[in-house]
């Protein structure tokens, strides 16, 4: 990926690669319960380097984008499922990764909230010109994808849009 | 990594219970180790300071045998050899009703010879000191100001003393004020007087206890010093010995080494239990955070950063616990020092501790032990944390599968360790380190075998419980084996804690039983008369010949009597306790021979051709039947053969028993320390004691005790010497109990979700109680059953290896059904008690809350 032979990297280098180039969205959000919402966003930035004013502004503007600018000081367990997943999206994007990996990003949300989260995810990824690789059962999500690979009876085949 | 640190600190702050448990584990373990260390160091330090105060700057000492050193030796050394830096000393112990229970040291000196040794005692040595008065008025003494205050006397007052059975009155001429060179500790319980008054008080007319010499004060070369030493040696009467001052205090201090090591090993056990607590709390905190750690790894936090994070947490709690442990240790040490000094006084030598000393090296050692223990106990948690894969889906069952895979390997390792430990114990060596190393290996082996044994026992319990308690019973039992990573360490800790408690209890009970039987046949006389003593385990003062004849003629129904004279002989390789015995034939039954027989030993003994040696001495010096024993006599070395080795639990240093007739021939010492009276059958000892008391002259203080009272008193001393072991045993159990409590709590709290689901499905709070307590009860029963063999192994090792190697005596193992009941009862009760809180908490938690994810 990005000209790097990933299997040849050491465990540490793979971690550093993840830190720089990848963002994750999980089905169960996996926000860090011991950090506030804003701090959860700042963590990937801090891992990439020191956090200054510019980084904090970026995190706050992303919070605004996901509509949670007033919840920056709250801890994740005070948020609803949809809110938590919106924070998770922001966290996956805040450090401007090349690729975002999403595992059932809407699997744990009701259809309405899921739809809103998808809009947000789709919008943010396309705006930033990034790649999103998502695994999902959701037809709605699959329909938004540029390319769909389907796993059926142990075989992968490409779904061709008509 | 500011945010990572913040996240970790917040985690700790959100789980105060875990922090409290880890900190408590470290603190309690460190506290017990530090307290014991401080108590023993303080006793040693007090002994060193008092030895230094009394020995002053002397480099060498000429020490006499039991009869003392003639005055003339001093004149010869000082005038004949021209050694100006020599001082005569008369030294002994007294007691006083004004200072009950304290052994007062009488130190008789010549103020004019004191300047090179104890400048504070030379004329003009202190602003308030008038030692001249000691010389000008006979019968006057000086006391330290604090001792005088405690006795309620001031200058000019009379002070009642009891020395060797006689009540004597001295006049307090003044008080000594501690200053830089003269510490409060060194002066405690010291009665300072001049040589002639001390000789009169101690009944040592014309004799000295020793002569202090300062030989390297001059700038002479080593060759000169050797020549001087040789010339002094040639002057010495036989029985006297010349040695450096260091040798003696080293030998005295060396007597404590086995005692010291035994207590230290016990205190380390508390630290081991503390480590279990740390292990548990830390693993719990990591397992709880697996998802969080996995998420961190996914975001790009490296293994090294995770390691640093968790290690930082461990070190923080370890440091906190260690510091707290040091403070707690000093507090605990204050209490323990009294028990330790009491035991040293009862068994070894007179020492009086004014305060707990806190040498920085002990505190640093405690700190290092605390941090080291935290780190060691944290290794499994650290490994777990570092290996958390960068995904957040690893479930509890994966951890449990891994734990179950480890069970056979742990058992194999445990078996190996056990065998290795057993081999170390079987090596015929006297090394105590090897013994304790072997013992710890065996204990660790047992702990590692516990998971396998627990699984086997649980399989046995399952059908029984499912039949009696139903589905809840099945669930409870299955919970033990499905949460092995939590339950196995808890059961192992409980097994070791109960095994140690029961094993030590069995050792003490066996020891006591052995001593009771020994006392039963050793105390053959009906009435014992002894002078007052500074040490509880042996008579110290002497009985005047007049008193002896008065008492032995006062009783018409007297069948006969034995006399006893105990003295300590200084030899090149340590002191030997020599007892001269004029033995009544009925007293022969007092000896239980381990080597030789009464029929062969007594004729040799009575003829003065052989001596009887006690088991500890024979063990220590490798003596066997027929071996020569060399004793320093006044007319040259006395060599006698061992006619028998008898069992004796009176002193771990050992004694040599010699017939009185031989003693009178070889040693110039007519004194008697105690008297055993044999009454005609049917005579009431209590009535006879009343008659004897009435024959005491005014001012005579002796203790006259019936066989029963002496036996009772001896057992009281025995119990006192084991008080410290009992306290340590209790402390170790408390630490272990907190460990088990924390493990069970972690187990139940982890199951909060599962229990929440059960509650939601209709399990009543009462049924939650049943479930939780059945499970902890099962663990308790398993631990109790496993603790029985473990406790027996421990008791056997303590009795036949550690005690033999530490003190040289053989004890008889006493095992009974009560031991089994005690072990099982203790484990079940411990487990049930530890399960109470989790059960209460779980039954009160609302199902909604328990189900809500963090």
Could you characterize the architecture of this molecule?
The complex is a heterodimer of chains A (162) and B (854). With 162 residues, chain A is of the alpha/beta class. Chain A has a single domain, classed as P-loop containing nucleotide triphosphate hydrolases (Rossmann fold). Chain A has helices at 11-21, 37-48, 53-65, 81-94, 111-128, 139-144; strands at residues 22-25, 99-103, 131-135, 148-152, 155-159. A 3-stranded parallel beta sheet of chain A has the order 1-2-3. A two-stranded antiparallel sheet of chain A has the order 4-5. Chain A is globular. Chain B is an alpha+beta fold and 854 residues long. Helices cover 60% and strands 15% of the residues of chain B. Chain B has 28 helices and 21 strands. In chain B, strands 12, 13, 14, 15, 16, 17, 18, 19, 20 and 21 form a 10-stranded mixed beta sheet that branches. In chain B, strands 6-7-5-8-4-3-10-1-11 form a 9-stranded mixed beta sheet. Chain B is elongated. Chain A binds chain B through residues 11-12, 15-16, 18-20, 22, 24, 26, 28, 30-35, 39, 42-44, 46-47, 51, 77, 91, and chain B through 1-4, 6-8, 10-11, 14, 291-292, 294-304, 390, 392, 854.
Compile the SSE list and pairings.
The complex is a heterodimer of chains A (162) and B (854).
Chain A: H1 11-21, E1 22-25, H2 37-48, H3 53-65, H4 81-94, E2 99-103, H5 111-128, E3 131-135, H6 139-144, E4 148-152, E5 155-159
Helix pairs in contact in A: 2-3, 2-4, 4-5
Chain B: H1 2-14, H2 16-55, E1 60-63, E2 69-70, H3 71-80, E3 86-94, E4 104-109, H4 132-136, E5 140-144, H5 145-151, E6 158-163, E7 166-176, H6 184-187, E8 190-194, H7 195-201, E9 207-208, E10 210-213, H8 222-235, E11 241-244, H9 245-254, H10 257-288, H11 290-299, H12 303-347, H13 360-386, H14 396-426, H15 432-468, H16 471-482, H17 484-522, E12 527-530, H18 545-554, E13 558-571, E14 574-582, E15 593-595, H19 598-606, E16 610-614, H20 615-621, E17 628-633, E18 636-646, E19 655-659, H21 660-666, E20 674-679, H22 685-694, E21 703-706, H23 707-721, H24 723-750, H25 752-760, H26 765-807, H27 817-844, H28 847-851
